[in-house]
């Protein structure tokens, strides 16, 4: 494999955590690896709700932390929740300073939305449902003004180089699969390449993000934490699109109701907070209505009426693509894989278990989210740990300018394993989805192993199957229901299991081998 050496920090990913880390590393030189043009294909740009932060005089970081711990169903690291929520306000002010047009009231205060499991309104938003897009636009503009940041577009990371227990480089190839890999050896490696929702057939995540970054780290030997906890968003708009467009939780915060085809509000009997119950509870309720053939829908007509057109334009646009006018009709919804609480286990500085490797954003597992992420804490975590990782990396660097990297990708490569990916996604939705059991999880592990055997060494696909294996194995090992992890064969939570999980790929593969050899 050809080797390119650089004194730059190599950041894998181009979402909010990656861009924010790059800016916080300035003037130290950074090389940003992005499969698509900046702003396209990043989960951050698709985020609708906004960023949770205690901005109101009646709110506090302590109240925000308490809601985070409560929503996390017993496995949140309380110290992490306290420290992250304490930093939230400063990051909102920083984003405002670089031009993010957060919604403001007549007095200049931030307009705040209430989302599920929050005790009060604390989600800072932009034009109703445009937060991710507008925040990313502001960060991209700032990156363009920052000479220390070089962006390589159309390039995808496919593996890590490890010497001893230290990561020394990243193997990259053309994002379309039309090249053999090149090894980039940089000053440090930060993984900020998104989560795993795209491993599922029904997801709200961008098409390219299918758990590869987590799998890449796992294949290098990094410890993975909380892999079993995948959050399913209750209100993906069910119009047959892949990925499914999102009906932001802010709609329910504004009073939208969940009804079924009979017009009955089914959440009223299931939780005191009804539509604003924690996401896992609402997602399972949506799933149950779907399984029963009662067609769940989100009804915004009484709460918003025609105001939805101006206040939530992305939702309206998606509805119109599906032939639905949300002003006059309820919006069909389904529970879709949305956010992976698990990922690369990191310290409070964003360090992984491997020297030379940091992670932030959805690819990481910090302990903030526990078994069930509190709404709009995802972007906040990416900001906090993007900055922390940048500052930790910077301690070992000087700020000497570095020449730009010239990358010549050799011809060759492998085309994406389209059929194998489609089958992997079906396996995950069918057997590792909203409701799980031992039989389904073992079936998933066997089928993942069979698909992997057909991959012919395709590194990108093997990164996906590594993450899928970790999710299914961790879910099989957790013999209880907790937060987003629901086992029909173990429906109750067990107090003695109220702790985070940690797993290496070697351990997950050993379990998979045992399951494969023991046919039911």
How would you sum up this structure in a few lines?
The chain is of the alpha/beta class.
Topology:
Elements: E1 3-5, E2 9-12, H1 16-25, E3 30-34, H2 43-46, E4 51-52, H3 61-71, H4 78-97, E5 112-113, E6 123-124, H5 131-144, E7 149-153, E8 155-163, E9 166-174, E10 182-185, E11 188-191, H6 212-219, E12 224-225, E13 230-237, H7 250-253, E14 257-259, H8 279-291, E15 297-299, H9 308-311, H10 313-321, E16 331-340, E17 343-345, E18 357-359, E19 364-365, H11 377-394, H12 418-431, H13 438-453, H14 459-477, E20 502-503, H15 505-517
Parallel strand pairs: 1-10, 2-3, 2-11, 3-7, 11-18, 17-19
Antiparallel strand pairs: 4-6, 5-6, 8-9, 9-10, 12-17, 12-20, 13-16, 14-15, 15-16
Count all strands and give the number.
20
Alpha-carbon Rg, integer:
22 Å
Number of discrete helical segments: 15
Kindly, what is the distance between the CA atoms of the first and last residues, rounded to a whole number of angstroms? 43 Å
What is the arithmetic mean of pLDDT? 94
Tell me the β content.
15-25%
Strand order of the largest sheet: 7-3-2-11-18
Unreliably modeled segments: none
Helix percentage: 25-40%
Q: Structural class per helix/strand content?
A: alpha/beta
**Approximate shape:** globular
